[in-house]
From TrEMBL:
Keyword vocabulary terms for this entry: Membrane, Signal, Transmembrane, Transmembrane helix
Positions of transmembrane segments: 39-58
Signal peptide: 1-23
UniProt name for this protein: CASP-like protein
Transmembrane among keywords: yes
Length: 86
């Protein structure tokens, strides 16, 4: 299974996450696995991450490439990219 398919499965598995409490796990996955900078924690950051992940998950079944972004109340910008391959 290719790396892209693994990420698709990971993101698809989080499609049921709707509450901020569950977004904390998503925050840990994304931040620990892919980020080198620092994104301040707290509810505002978790809301931004949940919004980006939700948007990417929703578009992953219909688009081959999609970019999503959100800004937290603390004015922290967060972007995410999805690229699917056949």
């Amino acid at each position: 299974m290719g790396l892209t398919h693994q990420w698709l499965l990971i993101f698809a598995s989080f499609s049921a996450l709707t509450s901020i409490a569950m977004a904390a796990d998503l925050y840990s996955l994304i931040y620990k696995g892919r980020a080198n900078g620092s994104l301040g924690g707290g509810a505002a950051a978790l809301q931004a991450i949940a919004a980006v992940a939700s948007s990417l998950i929703a578009q992953s079944s219909t688009s081959k490439f999609y970019k999503a972004s959100a800004t937290s109340m603390a004015r922290q910008a967060l972007s995410g990219l999805f690229q699917g391959r056949a």
